Amino acid sequence: MPRPRFSEALVSRRHELGLSVSQASRTLKLREDVLVAFEEGDFEHMPQSGYAQGMLSSYARYLGLNARELVDLFQEEL
Q1: For 15-64, how does the pLDDT look when each residue is reduced to its tens digit (9 = 90+)?
Q2: In this structure, how many other beta carbons lie within 10 angstroms of the beta carbon of residue 68?
Q3: Angle at 78 between CA 24 and CA 53, to 5 degrees
Q4: DSSP characters for 52-64?
Q5: What is the distance between the alpha carbons of residues 16 and 31, in angstroms, rounded to a whole number?
Q6: Contact 46, 7 (CB under 8 A)
Q7: Distance of CA 47 to CAs 12, 20, 55, 64, 68, Å?
Q8: In Å, how far from its chain's centre is CA 47?
């Protein structure tokens, strides 16, 4: 199954910046498995929607992406 668009955006931007998931996890103080779930589009292992939106927004801002656009894409895929 292909990754959702919001997941692709996260993965490609993180790779562009040369960051690891563990670096992002430490900086954002979010669990690595949550960030991996976002990047893989693994909705079963993401937090509940309200929490997920906030975490996804923080992750997007950290990566220099438009948080609103990413959260909107997330909502569409959900």
Answers
A1: 999 999 999 999 999 999 999 999 999 999 999 888 999 999 999 999 99
A2: 10
A3: 40
A4: HHHHHHHHHHHTT
A5: 21
A6: no
A7: 22, 21, 9, 22, 18
A8: 12
Tell me phi and psi for residue 65, to 5 degrees: -100, 165
- Number of H helices and E strands in the chain, helices first, is 5, 0
Residue linked to tokens 């562009």: 16
Q: Which of 13, 16, 2, 18 is nearest to 59 (CA)?
A: 13
At residue 77's C-alpha, the angle toward residues 47 and 13, to 5°, is 80
Provide the sign of the torsion angle of the four alpha carbons 19, 22, 27, 31, taken in this order.
positive
Q: Which two tokens stand for residue 43?
A: 């909705």
Q: What pLDDT shows up at residue 13? A: 98
